[in-house]
Automatic annotation (TrEMBL):
<dbReference type="InterPro" id="IPR008920">
    <property type="entry name" value="TF_FadR/GntR_C"/>
</dbReference>
<keyword id="KW-0238">DNA-binding</keyword>
<dbReference type="GO" id="GO:0003677">
    <property type="term" value="F:DNA binding"/>
</dbReference>
<keyword id="KW-0804">Transcription</keyword>
<protein>
    <submittedName>
        <fullName>FCD domain protein</fullName>
    </submittedName>
</protein>
<keyword id="KW-0805">Transcription regulation</keyword>
Amino acid sequence: MLQDSLSTLEIEDDPTEWQRQALTFWDHVLDGAGSIVFRLMFNAFRGAYEPALPMLSTVMTSEIRRPGDYRKLADAISVGDSAAAKKAAYELIECANEAVMAALDKLESKR
């Protein structure tokens, strides 16, 4: 499932759908991790983030669309390299966080 999700990320062109697929990718990562704590945190995040996707996708596309970085994470998970997976996940989440915050700032300045 993780590889299928990754394949979709590599070909999806629509910015909003791409972000939905990225959430699906993270769903699969969390399913594999088996952590109820991570699942609860992600579900809360997703509940807040998903309704804003159409608005956010208009101001952040290239900043968050990084299929190669998702591939790095999937590869590290596949071979059981927890250090590389942790590093790749951190980099993806940090990049996405910065992009979301910049997009929100941009939207706020337009108000």
